Structure formats: C-alpha cells, structure tokens
Amino acid sequence: MDEGAYHRGIMNESDFHRDVDAMLARIEAAVEEVDALDVDLESGILTLTCPDGTRIIINRQTPNREIWVAARSGGFHFSLREGAWRDTRSGDELFASLARIVALQAGVAVAFA
Fold it and tell me: Is residue 111 situated within a structural domain?
C-alpha cells in the first residue's frame, strides 16, 4: 500500500477492508473489557448492546470508504483524514467520539488503547 495515499485518505477496497477489520477488532476488544456492555461482531457489523437494551451499531460503508456509527444520539460518518478516522462533520476522531457516545448512551467508560 502507498503510505502517502493512505495518509491522504485514498485507499483501495482491499486496504479499506483490512483497516476497518482492524478497527472493529480494536473496538470489540476494548468493549469486551466492560461488563455492562454486550458486544457482537458478525459479518463486519459490530453491535454494542447497552444495559438499557439500546444498541450502538458500527459498520463499514464500502462505497464511501467510511465507518458509520448509529446511536441514540444520531448517525455519524467517519472517513480517513490526516492518518485518522475522523467524523465527516465535526472532525472528531473515531475513538474519542465512540468513548463519548458510549458514555452518553450506556453510562460507562470505555478506553480505546
């Protein structure tokens, strides 16, 4: 993979899938450390079930090369910019956003190392 293209947010589909799979695995591992949340990764869709039964869904949007997050607080789209997955509206980084979303919806802290 061309590292320069990767950091500019340009990647081919294979690189995109590999990167998103790694991100989903990292999210899954962090969430599994929190007893209050149930986590399920199936077919590239990561579902976090909160204590109140609500869900946070994280999945890939291949045509747009984005990661999408659906939560009670709204829908969020993340694209690769400047070497990090960033919200397409706010510019916030994916893991910082997920930590806020989970804290707000589930009332628990998740540390994404």
Answer: no
pLDDT tens column, 73-98 = 999 999 998 889 999 999 999 999 99
Structure tokens at 92: 């916030």
Q: Which domain holds residue 24?
A: 3-106
43 occurs within a structural domain = yes
Alpha carbon distance 51, 70 (integer Å): 17
pTM of the model: 0.87
User: Are 32 and 43 contacting, i.e. CB atoms less than 8 angstroms apart?
Assistant: no
Number of domain units in the chain: 1
Domain of residue 80, CATH code: 3.30.920.10
**Residue 20 Cα to chain centre, angstroms:** 8
Q: Look at phi and psi of residue 66 and say left if phi exceeds 0, alpha if psi is from -120 to 50, else beta.
A: beta
Convert the pLDDT of each residue in 32-69 to its tens digit: 999 999 999 999 899 999 999 999 999 999 999 999 99
